[in-house]
Structure prediction request, 803 residues.
Amino acid sequence: MTEEIIIAGFGGQGVLSMGKILAYSGAMQDKEVSWMPSYGPEMRGGTANVSVIISDERISSPIISQFDTAIILNQQSLDKFEKTVKPGGVLLYDPNGVFNPPTRKDINIYKVAATEKASELGMAKVFNMIVLGAFLEVKPVVTEEFIEKGLLKSLPERHHKMIPENLKAVQTGKTIVETVFEL
Amino acid sequence: MAKELKLMKGNEAIAEAAIRSGCDGYFGYPITPQSEVMEHLMIEKPWETTGMVVLQAESETSSINMVYGGAGAGKKVMTSSSSPGISLMQEGLTYLAGAELPALVVNVVRGGPGLGTIQPSQADYFQAVKGGGHGDYQMYVLAPASVQEMYDFVFLGWEIAFKYRNPVMILSDGAIGQVMEKLYVGPHIPRWTEEELRKNAPWASCGKPADRDHNIITSLDLDSAKQELHNHKLQAKYREMEEKEVLFETINCEDAEYIFVAYGSSARIAQKAIQLGREKGIKVGLLRLITLFPFPKKQVAEFSKKVKGMLAVEMSAGQMVEDVRLAAEFRCPVEHFGRYGGIIHTPHEVLEALEEKIIKG
Amino acid sequence: MFNPDIIKPENLVYEKTNVLTDAVMHYCAGCGHGTTHRIVAEVIEEMGIQDKAICIAPVGCSVLAYNYFNVDAIGAAHGRAPAIATAIQRMFPDRHTFTYQGDGDLAAIGTAETIHACNRGENIVIIFINNGIYGMTGGQMAPTTLLGMKTATSPYGRTVELNGYPLQITELLAELPGTYYITRQSVHTAAAVRRTKKAIRQAFENQKNKKGTSLVEVVSNCNSGWKMTPVEANKWMVENMFVKYPIGDIKVDGEKVKK
Prediction:
């Protein structure tokens, strides 16, 4: 199993940390992992993206241009990354602010209204974990047990008290993900 | 020995390795994409645990001279920077080489020339392996291709630097610096005590005991005849490195008809291109360079006798390819492929280049 | 009238300190470097810190200072001595790392290293020889060259329009909170030599007590570069250099001296 993922959105949406938690969780589950961020000025307020690879084998290139899954959190990222999903792959997006939804017919498309749900439940801080939950519902590349271990390892100790809320957000994501188009 | 699993960026791995390898001092100046090295050290506060000194200098010029000072006093000292900062350090690097001082310098390369871009690049190859500063000198240049190697090469770097009394460069790039991967770290190696330092580096200027002459660290000799002799000694040292310290890795080369030659990030990308190529029935392998100086001349020469062609893959307009061609001596076609200026080539582009430039060409 | 019989221990009135080597100095006759070397070496001997002293030699006339000081030494790249000393003193806090620098080294090419080492309050001693000229390279203009002064690169005399003003780097450094002791001295008379030696002793004592940066400027002559006899050069120094670079303490115990 090798899963090559791009997560993209605005800076501040927790794109990088979602990727990090996913990578840590994979590592805890004894997978090979890599986490490769876009870096530089775009980190500050603009768009941010990170590619995460989770694999049973040694990872060749952490720098990739085609993905098994794209997790998309804004329109710019959708425009940029829809075409990079491998045929038969997965595109998961949050419809908030997306006025031109994805159109490809050779990939599986799912949506998760995470922004809306987070604001409804007052869980803005763990918005990204709702998205992660949705992804894991579609592609269970790591199990829940290891998500918790990944959180423990990746979050500084002072934030460990937030872990139950994070896990609740993952559960929420799992239940609200919707299929838009399936092959 | 029990090893601890961490998930770290390449830059953080450098810092972690510094602390765990008994480094005495890090002197640096922030520059993207390697600022995490000093940031991680400042978070870890090793001066409270191992006694390692960490200092943010006023410039790269100052950083490398702090390294020169520490090295001259026999300490395990290092700095890190990225391309424009490494250009500023060239003065110090040639002095380190001239005065035969051990030191570790990390270059997390970004696109140039000039201020360039902050994205990954491999366009500092010439600067690293062909001198960079003035005079006839060489650094031992290691090219890590993973976070684990960023860590491991710090340890290896100290070994070579002190064995040969020569600066060692870890030539990385923005991608390996920024990527986070699994890292296994070993136990702390304690810093040298003063007794160990005096035993291991008897040449060091760290205070003259009554029973020995004063030590002088300098690269100056106004007598040209002596300076030439000194140069002979340096050259002999570099030849010895070429004889004994070449490192490389071969991947999928057993049945290969074509060879990618690459280092660092490009070697990782080439590995992916090999998977894609082999899916299409193209028998391609990889010669991954681990040391750039000394260059694996013999290995390139041997492959040049066996394969139908080689593609040098590097994120530059074509630097390493010159050394590949020199070693291949026209026995097989050698072409270059690489994106540059901060653009990273994709595995598909690399495979396509092999097909276009070598297989069809 | 040489009488070898008078060479006896009981007749000894002066002995070269062991902290200077027996190497014959290359300095011009009448130059202040030799004298300054001697008193630095004597202070090191008197304080009993030869085993702890580390000399950082500059680029300039005193580039070979490491051949004369019988202590461990490192030759710096031009202007970088304070950075080098910073690293050593931080990693060996009980040593006596000192730089010995000229005006081109300290106040031109090494300005950044000088200012930042002083501003961090590095616990180092800086001996600064200011003779207003580049001696080693053949008498070119220095940052401290006086207005009107003729040098190889200001052959018609230094002008503000062409070259800007002479740099009073020492006064500037005294403004920095990291500096603890800043003084300007000279070595052109016996009395001046005694005062300078006292100042150098003070600087090394400060270092021993971990007080921060101490700098002793020695205004000196360069009779070769100035194209004068040693006697004329000293006279010219007193009449001209001392006007722009007045002798005396500038900062003592971390406090600027009130004029």
